[in-house]
Amino acid sequence: MKVDGRHFRSIWLEDDGWTVGAIDQRRLPHEFVVARIASAADATEAIHSMLVRGAPLIGATAAYGMALAMRTDASDAALDRAYAMLLAARPTAINLKWALDEMARLLRPLPASERVAAAYQRASEIAEEDVAINQGIGRHGLALIEQIAATKQPGEPINILTHCNAGWLATVDWGTATAPIYLAHDSGLKVHVWVDETRPRNQGASLTAWELGHHGVPHTVISDNTGGHLMQHRMVDLAIVGTDRVAANGDVCNKIGTYLKALAAHDNGVPFYVALPSPTIDFSIDDGIRQIPIEQRSTEEVATMTGRTADGRVETVRVVPDGSPVANYAFDVTPARLVTGLITERGLLRPERAALASAFPERGAGH
Length: 367
Prior knowledge:
Belongs to the EIF-2B alpha/beta/delta subunits family. MtnA subfamily. The record marks 164 as: Transition state stabilizer. This protein is α/β, with parallel strands linked by helices. It folds into 2 domains: 2-128, Four Helix Bundle (Hemerythrin (Met), subunit A) (Up-down Bundle), CATH 1.20.120.420; 137-364, Rossmann fold, CATH 3.40.50. Helix content is 41%, strand content 19%. It is built from 13 helices and 18 strands. A 7-stranded mixed sheet has the order 8-7-6-9-12-17-18, with helices on both faces. Strand 7 (191-196), helix 7 and strand 8 form a beta-alpha-beta unit. The longest helix has 38 residues, at 112-149. The chain is globular.
């Protein structure tokens, strides 16, 4: 996608052939900064600190982290250390483990002398595969938007609600939930996006709004509790969200607050779709609510907010009283019964084991 007319991906291999560049998403929307990742430790910190975030991008970053580790030391012991360090960076998004398993499966049988080149090649392939997956999601999701457009009066917009950032910043390019939106906009359909702010880190207000704005997609930022009201007043045609992990039974884990949007959508007859890249499926889990680990992040993310002052300074301020306890659950799980459908690179699926296993037999093998 483009930033001020120039094409960017969220992560890339630099011209030197070994370091990795990534957009520092902690600095958006007020500053556009490119970070340099030069070691497995750098990649781990980038994932942990949310310099990079979004399940697909976390996976791509982890793959490059393994390549950087092999460049420093291609031994079995170093491979094991890098795998463990990167895996511990964040617990909820399954793409992280998927990418690390892909790298380890490739590298372990190889002699040390061949591991560096193979690691960089596979990391690059994982990044390219993510782009292709998102384009597939975009095509299948576009068909849904076109169906709604056919029911509209001339000039009437298709109103889409999304939560958190499942845009190109959360992937390598295109995004998951936003890919259909970008394709619809680029094809001339009149779309408008309701952008949930997504407290506590404000990924909607800071990231989704930023990227939609740069692409020229009409949008409106709303507080997290506005979606239900909009649905009651028939101001939302469909909701499309991303996901960090989907259980074999179709339960969907996504940014905290997604479950409440799904409940409101169900109550008001609003279609609720989840954009699902196949590496996000976890066939080892049968009950998302009970089995998916929910990350609890720093209480400071809730207790403070960062913004730009009138004179242009970026500052962080405290918004809760000193001494008040704070909890910060980063994700919640939406039961499959509340999900209208899963938009995947292989088509629109029902949120159930049989449909997932049939569409992705290579992922479900052994589970």
